[in-house]
Each structure stands twice: as structure tokens, then as C-alpha cells.
Design goal:
It is a single chain. By secondary structure, this protein is of the alpha+beta class. The protein folds into 4 domains: 6-118, 2-Layer Sandwich (Beta-Lactamase), CATH 3.30.450; 126-239, Beta-Lactamase; 246-333, Helix Hairpins; 335-489, 2-Layer Sandwich (Heat Shock Protein 90). 43% of the residues lie in helices and 25% in strands. The chain has a 5-stranded antiparallel beta sheet with strand order 2-1-5-4-3, sandwiched between helices. Strands 7-6-10-9-8 form a 5-stranded antiparallel beta sheet. It has a 5-stranded mixed beta sheet with strand order 12-14-15-17-16. α8 packs across α11 and α10 (341-358) packs parallel to α11 (378-397). The chain is rod-shaped. The model is unreliable at 439-448 (pLDDT under 50).
Length: 489
């Protein structure tokens, strides 16, 4: 390789925007500097040549002259050497630099070319990023929520410290696939949620039982594509085991309360039912006694058969009454189905009329001509109707009016199914809006638990229940339930 003349080399380096100092290969003294270096350091070439390292370097051990000389020496045998250096300008400004020492053989002599550039801004940014990263790591370590980045195969590429803690992973444990941490029957549903992860925001949360069968996770996900190593599905997950257990305890409590409500309603119906049963039982006894007498008198067989058949019909009627009551009060698991609300009200009306008859209350039933299809547990909705009607009958029992009237009905109202229970009794003086909030009652001796139970049942079915004063006197209770969309269309 032909060696360059030093003057040509100087002209070449002067054309660069990169700062360059030339050092003698033997003494390591500065022998020349290009224009960019002179401008950056604030010295002319003539002023730089006599300067020593102590005059233009930050006085710290890491910038000791011997360290720079060692890097320059290595460049002669090992090629260009990169090291950090801090130059000090004429004005005392420190310029943190990345320096590259390269040995160059010129025609007249061998020099060490040191190229340097100011990296103060870069290092400042790096320090801030490291500080932000440290703070972020501390914040995420104490989060109650885990964060993980998944690839297309649902394998965990990155997971936060809090996420490792939630999944029971130590620092060195391989994370594997997120599906591994959920119960086997949950895998397909979780993969479907990940496949459909939106890019414009978090998905709807999914609830999944863990593989241990004890814990539950709530997972949301979002698809990201920021750069090559930050691409995939970002998930946030948290342990909701306590929430699930609380909800289950509340459901159990609600089922017990609903059963207690039905049982309580059964007690209130006992007298009316006993009266209703007394009629077929008395008829059975009369028909059987008549048949026995005819047998004793050797009466014609036809009259005996007629009497026994009549007794059988009355016994069947009594059995129907008992079966209806047993089906109503029996404890059972929730049985949700699409049902015509008019059918539920008609079935409840039979019990209402039994109770009303004893209180000398006339019952009028108003039903819509069109079906009112709702998705519900029919026994519970029937229980609400009975509770409201029985409360109205109790209020009418003490009312001083010539005609005690109770009207129950179901109709379409603003796109929803409406049930109303209206009486012409004394009503209540105030607090209609709080009647179903618990511990409020229209009865002097009532505690409001039955009305609170009504609100709980209607709310669970997506409905609303309210009480309104009747202008002519009395109280009207109404509840609205959403129509089944499929049946409505």
C-alpha cells in the first residue's frame, strides 16, 4: 500500500465533520488537528500542539493519560481501539467522547489518528433511560397485575416480575406458554381470545380457572407491532380467586334466600290452600260414604261406580293442588328458559285468588294479547309476583273500603315486558322510591326483606322494579324485564 504524504492526509481529514487529532506514534504528543477538532475544542492547531493531556482532559482516574497511551499502542498491533474519553475545551467545557485510535503510516512518519465525537447527549439519554427502566422495574415488581408479551404460538417472550410472582415462577424458570397455566378445558377459549386480540385497545376480559384448579385469572389482551423485538400479543392478567369465591358465596346465599322466600310465601298461602283442599276432601268423604251405604243396601252398581268415580275426580283435584304447591316451594337448581311472561302470571294468579278469597278481595287479571317472551327462571319471577300480590292483599285486609280490588297484569311497555300489581288500599305516605332497597315495608309489622328479595331477583334478570302511588288511592308496583331478542325478532 502506498503511503500518503502528510499534507494530503491533512487535506483529507479537514474535509471531515468528525473531529480528528494526530499523535506522534512514539511520543504520543499532538502533532496536528483537523478543522472540526479545533472548532470543538476552541484551540488552533498551533495552540493544541504544545498542550498536554492534563490541559485538555477531565482530571479523573478513568481518563488517565496512560490509559489513552495503552489504547494507542494496541492500535499498532490489534487494529483500531475504541475507548471513552473526556476532552476539556478552552472554555472548560467537558466533552464526553467516543474515541477511536488507529495507527496510520505516512510517508514521513507513523502517527496515531484519534477520531472522536461528542456523546454527552447520548450518554445523558442513556442515563435517563436506565433511570426510567429502574423505576419502571420497581413499579412493576409491586404491581398486583402481571404483564407478558406472547408470540403467535401463545408462548411467553417477556414477563414482568409481578407476572412471574402471579404464575409462581422463579427468576430462572422458563415461562413456556400462557395456556399451560390454565385448566385444560379453558385452553380453546383462551386461544380464541388471543387470536382475536384487537390492536386499538384491550380486549374484553376473560376469566379462566388455573391449572391447579384452585385459582382464577382475569386476562385482557392487545395486539402490538412496534418494532421487530416488540411484536405479538400483550396480555395483562391478575389473580381474581378471592373475587370468584366471593361471587360464589353470594350466589349460594342468594339461592338460600330465594328458597327461604319461597318457603315463607308457602306459609302465607297455607290457610287459603287448606280451605281450598277442604272442599275436595269433604266431597271425597261424602262420595265414599255414599258408595259404602249403597253396597250395604245392595244398591245398583251404577250408582256405586258413579260415586267412586266422582270421589276419584275430587282426589285428583286435591292432588293437583298439592303438586302445584310442592313444585313452587321445592328447592331446586336454577332453571333458566325462555318463557311467556303471561303464562307465569296466569299460574301465579291461581295462588293469588286463593289468598284473596279469604281476605274478601276481588282479583282482576289483565294480560296482553301478544306474547311476552323473556329469558328467566320462571319460579323466581312467579315468586316476585306472589310477594307483591300478597303484600297488596295484606294492605287491603285492613283497608276501610267497600270494594277491595287487586289488579295484576302483564303488557308490552317501551320495548320491555311490564308486570304491574295495583291495589286500592291505603298505600304508603312516603318513601316509594326506597321501598325495594331493603328494610322498608308497606306493612306496619313488615321488615322489607321480601321486597329486597324481589329487587334482587329482578336485578339479576336485568330488570328494574319500582313503586308508584295511585292517584285515586292505593299503591302500584311495577317491574320491567327485557324481552328475549331472538323471540322478539
Amino acid at each position: 500500500m502506498t503511503s500518503l504524504a502528510e499534507a494530503d492526509f491533512h487535506r483529507l481529514l479537514d474535509a471531515l465533520t468528525l473531529c480528528v487529532l494526530l499523535h506522534d506514534a512514539q511520543s504520543k504528543a499532538i502533532v496536528w488537528a483537523n478543522r472540526a477538532a479545533c472548532e470543538a475544542l476552541g484551540f488552533s492547531v498551533d495552540e493544541l500542539i504544545p498542550l498536554k493531556a492534563v490541559d485538555m482532559t477531565r482530571p479523573e482516574p478513568k481518563y488517565d493519560r496512560e490509559l489513552a497511551i495503552a489504547a494507542m499502542n494496541r492500535s499498532a498491533t490489534q487494529g483500531p481501539q475504541v475507548y471513552e474519553w473526556c476532552y476539556r475545551s478552552r472554555t472548560g467545557h467537558d466533552m464526553l467522547s467516543e474515541a477511536i485510535a488507529t495507527t496510520v503510516k505516512l510517508e514521513a512518519r507513523t502517527v496515531v489518528m484519534v477520531q472522536f465525537r461528542d456523546i454527552s447527549a447520548e450518554e445523558s439519554i442513556k442515563r435517563r433511560l436506565r433511570a426510567h427502566e429502574a423505576r419502571l422495574r420497581e413499579f412493576m415488581q409491586d404491581l398486583g397485575e402481571g404483564v407478558a408479551l406472547l408470540n403467535e404460538a401463545a408462548e411467553i417472550q417477556y414477563i414482568s416480575e409481578s407476572g412471574r410472582r402471579l404464575l409462581g415462577l422463579s427468576l430462572n424458570d422458563a415461562a413456556g406458554s400462557i395456556v399451560d397455566y390454565t385448566a385444560a378445558e379453558e385452553s380453546a377459549r383462551l386461544l380464541n381470545q388471543l387470536d382475536n386480540a384487537p390492536a386499538d385497545g384491550p380486549s374484553s376480559p376473560g376469566r379462566y380457572q388455573c391449572a391447579d384448579g384452585e385459582r382464577w385469572l382475569r386476562i385482557t389482551c392487545r395486539r402490538i407491532d412496534l418494532e421487530e423485538d416488540l411484536r405479538g400479543v400483550l396480555i395483562h392478567f391478575r389473580d381474581i380467586t378471592d373475587v370468584v369465591r366471593t361471587e360464589e358465596a353470594r350466589r349460594t346465599e342468594a339461592r338460600m334466600l330465594e328458597y327461604a322466600g319461597r318457603y315463607n310465601a308457602m306459609g302465607e298461602m297455607a290457610m287459603a290452600i287448606a280451605h281450598e283442599l277442604s272442599q275436595p276432601v269433604a266431597a271425597i268423604r261424602n262420595f265414599v260414604e255414599g258408595a259404602i251405604q249403597r253396597l250395604a243396601q245392595a244398591a245398583p252398581g251404577e250408582s256405586i261406580v258413579w260415586g267412586l268415580r266422582a270421589a276419584d275426580r275430587q282426589a285428583e283435584h286435591a292432588a293437583t293442588i298439592i303438586k302445584s304447591v310442592r313444585e313452587y316451594v321445592a328447592r331446586r337448581d336454577p332453571n333458566i328458559a325462555i318463557t311467556d311472561l303471561r303464562t307465569i302470571l296466569s299460574e301465579a294468579a291461581w295462588f293469588v285468588q286463593l289468598r284473596a278469597r279469604e281476605a274478601n278481595v276481588s282479583v282482576h287479571v289483565e294480560l296482553s294479547d301478544d306474547p311476552l317472551m323473556i329469558e328467566c327462571e320462571r319460579v323466581l319471577i312467579g315468586q316476585v309476583i306472589l310477594n307483591l300480590a300478597f303484600n297488596a292483599i295484606d294492605a287491603l285486609a285492613s283497608a276501610e273500603c267497600a270494594q277491595k280490588q287487586l289488579t295484576i297484569g302483564a303488557c308490552l311497555n317501551d320495548g320491555q315486558a311490564l308486570v304491574f300489581v295495583r291495589d286500592n288500599g291505603p298505600g304508603i305516605s312516603e318513601g316509594h322510591e326506597r321501598l325495594f332497597d331493603g328494610f322498608s315495608s308497606a306493612k306496619e309489622t313488615g321488615n322489607g326483606i321480601g321486597l329486597s328479595l324481589c329487587k334482587s331477583i329482578i336485578t339479576r334478570h336485568g330488570g328494574v322494579i319500582r313503586a308508584f302511588p295511585v292517584q285515586s288511592g292505593g299503591l302500584e308496583c311495577r317491574f320491567w324485564l327485557p324481552l328475549d331478542e331472538a323471540a322478539a325478532s
